[in-house]
């Protein structure tokens, strides 16, 4: 059921984004009286699941869920319909329109993707505010595992800067560390700068570094699961764990480590409750989970926005997401980090979807993915929107159109590049699945 829900969420997000992206091409084309022959969600290689012709345009759903397309008359695109191009240009064809109109048609999809993300982020900030954990004022510093230590960090460090840039939010600091070259921390009262080695990053990516860096917090209980070991032992929301078996244990990572290493053992848990210390006993089950959730109230900060404040804040968030995605290419193309091995295709992305229906997560993911699609599509690779824009800008600057032969060759080269990238991401997905069974 969980996997089905994740697949449904992913397909729904992709469908919405593809339809809106293609509308970004479709409506400017229609406005400039350009004939649109097809409007498809997914690709209809050999056959389609559904199709209906309305006016000059065939609307349909293909069977190959790798995007979608609009086929515009008089344009050399992925269909490689060169027969049409041998005919005399017609006034309703793409090639007959002024370059500035063709430029608007080709950039329409990317613009819609960007605007969609901006709108989503604006509405989320207006309705929910922005809740985060500040990285520059963590009360108890960070907590790292052996992978974090390999990067040169230590539990208790306080992050001050990454690459001479202050990081305001903890989640941004984590990404900055993965993408950065050095981090400045406060350790034992001294400021030190730690170089971030490619070898350390390689380990982070190889293990997917899920817990390599976290934030330290007091072991205060927010919720106790019904019928859990913790409930039966008498633990309650609001309890602050102070020790285990007489050993001072004031931080959550210390308590979690002790629980994880004490399967089938009886533990004496000392908690601070209503100003007094109480002792409770429990036996840790085999799986090392006792059924409590952490209270982070003392660490979280929420910035609230009215509607007019949310608009520029939503724009800033969109630009930040775009910037972070561009920066990731620095790491991906650095073969020493091995980050390219973790690039995810559709299978890997499905695993990132929420196992439960969460509208906030759904919309945040859609906005992030919309920015990602905008960025990928504007890359100057023939067969992508950015490739068409590249040739159009050449035409507008030089005053000469590229020959149809050049455009056809460009489409073929772009198609080969895209198929190569698809092979890499699908190969990574399949290999990661295989590794789970090895």
Automatic annotation (TrEMBL):
The processes (GO biological process) annotated in the record are: proteolysis
Task: List GO terms (cellular component aspect).
Answer: membrane
Annotated membrane topology: Multi-pass membrane protein
Superkingdom classification of source: Bacteria
Q: Which GO terms of the molecular function aspect are on file?
A: metal ion binding; metalloendopeptidase activity
Q: What is its EC number?
A: 3.4.24.-
Q: Which UniProt keywords apply?
A: Hydrolase, Membrane, Metal-binding, Metalloprotease, Protease, Transmembrane, Transmembrane helix, Zinc
**Where mainly located?**
membrane
Q: Which residues cross the membrane?
A: 6-27, 103-126, 359-392, 412-434
Q: Which family does it belong to?
A: Belongs to the peptidase M50B family.
Which protein, by its recorded name, is this?
Zinc metalloprotease
């Amino acid at each position: 059921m969980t996997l089905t829900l994740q697949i449904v969420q992913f397909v729904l997000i992709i469908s919405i984004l593809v339809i809106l992206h293609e509308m970004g091409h479709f409506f400017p084309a229609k406005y400039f009286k350009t004939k649109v022959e097809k409007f498809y969600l997914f690709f209809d290689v050999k056959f389609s699941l559904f199709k209906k012709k309305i006016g000059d345009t065939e609307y349909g759903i293909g069977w190959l869920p790798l995007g979608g397309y609009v086929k515009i008359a008089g344009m050399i695109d992925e269909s490689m319909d060169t027969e049409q191009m041998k005919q005399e240009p017609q006034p309703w064809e793409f090639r007959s329109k002024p370059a500035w109109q063709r430029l608007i048609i080709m950039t329409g999809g990317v613009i819609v993707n960007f605007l969609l993300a901006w709108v989503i982020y604006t509405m989320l900030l207006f309705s929910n505010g922005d809740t985060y954990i500040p990285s520059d004022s963590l009360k108890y510093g960070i907590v790292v595992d052996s992978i974090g230590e390999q990067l040169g960090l230590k539990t208790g460090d306080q992050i001050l800067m990454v690459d001479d840039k202050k990081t305001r939010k903890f989640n941004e600091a984590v990404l900055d560390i993965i993408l950065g070259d050095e981090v400045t921390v406060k350790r034992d009262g001294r400021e030190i700068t730690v170089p971030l080695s490619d070898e350390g990053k390689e380990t982070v990516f190889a293990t997917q570094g899920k817990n390599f860096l976290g934030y330290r917090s007091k072991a205060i209980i927010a919720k106790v699961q019904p019928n859990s070991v913790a409930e039966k032992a008498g633990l309650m929301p609001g309890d602050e764990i102070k020790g285990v078996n007489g050993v001072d244990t004031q931080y959550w990572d210390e308590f979690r480590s002790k629980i994880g290493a004490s399967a089938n053992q009886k533990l004496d848990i000392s908690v601070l409750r209503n100003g007094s210390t109480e002792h409770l006993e429990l036996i840790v089950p085999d799986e090392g989970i006792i059924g409590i959730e952490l209270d982070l109230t003392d660490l979280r900060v929420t910035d609230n926005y009215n509607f007019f404040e949310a608009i520029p804040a939503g724009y800033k968030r969109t630009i930040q997401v775009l910037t972070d995605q561009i920066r990731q290419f620095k790491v991906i193309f650095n073969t020493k980090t091995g980050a390219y091995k973790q690039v995810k295709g559709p299978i890997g992305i499905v695993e990132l979807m929420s196992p439960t229906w969460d509208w906030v997560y759904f919309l945040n993911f859609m906005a992030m993915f919309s920015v990602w699609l905008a960025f990928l599509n504007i890359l100057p690779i023939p067969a992508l929107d950015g490739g068409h824009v590249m040739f159009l800008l050449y035409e507008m600057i030089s005053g000469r159109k590229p020959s149809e032969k050049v455009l056809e060759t460009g489409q073929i080269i772009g198609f080969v590049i895209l198929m190569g990238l698809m092979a890499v991401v699908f190969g990574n997905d399949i290999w990661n699945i295989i590794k789970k069974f090895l």
